[in-house]
Amino acid sequence: MKEIHLKEFGIDITLNLYTLGNGSGDIISNLKDRCPYCGEVDCYISCSIHNEEFEDEDEMLSRRDYNSAIDGIESLVLAQAVAGIDVEDEKYLTALHTAIDACGNNP
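Request: output the structure for the sequence above.
Response:
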């Protein structure tokens, strides 16, 4: 297994690339927005805390859409790393940062 840590621009991504020859891996990051009530990433009015307080629907939908875009970016970064692209290259990291910023700036 090869582990890659990307910690540029406040981005914290860990890639685990498995060397079993099947081109697999996994990714862990701090990029997704969390539910303001329970702290879970994939909570959209499903936690028990929402029974008492409700997140503004527009904010929840915006968070859901942002997290979906981040899912796509994470999948692309992982696929590129598995394919052998140097995801630690400075130009790559600059482009990654720009793409992540665009997710937050284009609701």
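The longest strand covers residues 13-18.
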